[in-house]
Amino acid sequence: MSKTMAINAGSSSLKWKLYAMPEEEVLASGIVERIGLDNALFSIDYNDGESVERTADISNHEVAVEMLLKELIDLSILNSFDEITGVGHRVAAGGESFSDSAVVTDEVLKEIERLGELAPLHNPANAMGIRAFKKILPDITSVAVFDTSFHQTMDKVNYLYSIPMEYYEKHNARKYGYHGTSHKYVSQRASEMLGKPLEDLKIVSCHLGNGASLCAIEGGKSVDTSMGFTPLAGLTMGTRSGDIDVSLLPFLMEKEGIADINEMIDILNKQSGLKGLSGISSDMRDLHEQAAENEQAAVALRIFENRVIKYIGAYAATMNGVDAVIFTAGIGENDIQTRQNIIEGISFLGAQIDNEKNDCRGKERVISTDGSKVAVLLVPTDEEVMIARDIERLS
Ligand code: ADP
User: Is position 387 within any domain?
Assistant: First the structure.
């Protein structure tokens, strides 16, 4: 048995899971939040129900990693650091450099940092997590798993924007997509659940969380996806606008007296989507609660569903067919009403929801009727286990 860690490092947080492999058993998991701020929060869940929670001064990621590893020893979850055979890190942007996960060498780490120009909020934080573990566990294999690499199979026809070709040639200005690890995981599970090889399936995977994207998957490969150069494009999300006509930007900037384009982009990333439309919340639960009395909340919900329905239709056309639609992530796994409305919106494809089977949250199951021409599946995503598997595969 080997023990591996899957890491998701943000600018002020570090989420982790410790696995026994190849059993894929979660031995412990936890999160360190508010790194670098006063009273950082440190929590660990282990032994099926036991937990440790406290606040501490954690000035940077290195201190967080040190504390976390020491705690694993103190709680006897590990006997020594030597038991850890590999550490895998989620990295947002791999650009065109990484079409698969990669063992982290000095060059790979430099490239991850360079690709911060594609994901300025994420890659530098991801690299910080990698450096922290490398410093404390220098001899242990470190693997980077990119949100973009699953989408590197997209054809030019789907990843190029219709802008002067030289912008792609000179600057790699193109669609990259995100959530790749999640789309890959749920499509593999769907194939297993349906008992059909991935090679024979045309799938639309709907990762509907606070960040949301759809992916068209044919023969196990990403053909198209709704996020773009950055995660701002595509669907209406919690706080992101999704697709808009970019000519709106200079118009709004002039009307609203916004001088800096970055400020405008910030509004599209943080003040738009469900939050901006409803004026209430970015959280679907709040909107459902208020939809009966509040027109704006009701409209935001309808717009969310409408964009998902449109993209499913577009991807069914892109693949010239669709065998399965998968729902995953916070909304996809838990929002019964939204799943029902979306599937009713694509009944023209022969998709039919079974309301009894759909009446559940967070459970892996087929939720379409036996007679449905398109299988509809609920598959809780598991990006961490994909990271653990990649550590095994690459170490
Ligand atoms: P993130 O992109 O931050 O990882 P998640 O996948 O955790 O997001 O999804 C978070 C979203 O899931 C919340 O914004 C909320 O709208 C939605 N959600 C969670 N539980 C429910 C529920 N029971 N009903 C409807 N929506 C839910």
Answer: no
Domain that holds residue 277: 195-378
Beta bridge partners of 316: none
Query: Angle CA(342)–CA(92)–CA(276) in degrees, nearest 5?
Result: 45
Provide the sign of the torsion angle of the four alpha carbons 346, 224, 266, 119, taken in this order. positive
pLDDT tens for 231-287 read 999 999 999 999 999 999 999 999 999 999 999 999 999 999 999 999 999 999 999
- Specify the number of domains making up the chain: 2
| Farthest CA pair distance, the chain | 62
Determine which one of 45, 147, 155, 283 is catalytic.
147
Give the predicted TM-score (pTM) of the model: 0.96
Strand-pairing partners, residue 343, are none
SS3 content of the chain, % helix, strand, coil (to 5): 45, 25, 35
**Each residue's pLDDT tens digit, 313-334:** 999 999 999 999 999 999 999 9
The verdict on the CB of residue 238 being under 6 Å from ligand 1 is yes
State which residues of the chain have pLDDT below 50. Answer: none
- Amino acid letter, 133: F
How far is Cα 364 from Cα 328, in angstroms, rounded to an integer?
A: 10
147 is catalytic: yes
